[in-house]
Amino acid sequence: MEKRRIHFTFRGDVQGVGFRWRASQAARMYGLTGWVENEYDGTVEMELQGTDSEINAVLDVISSGRFVDITDVRKKYIPLEDERDFRIIG
Known about the structure:
The protein is of the alpha+beta class.
């Protein structure tokens, strides 16, 4: 399967609910690279790089969080980057 990189913006109850931690754990579990960061407007931004099935698996883990309530997701396909890990910014 071909790898791709997607930039996500999540809205809803996504800060202060373990979103970034869950994203980091899931990305590492599935071997994806990228980053996740809280924004000042209450959104969470994230970039994931991997196959479609891996990216979907990470999104499933994140959205299954007990206190996470995603009300809107925006995504944009962007060029692949040469990186080796997934990190939490901020």
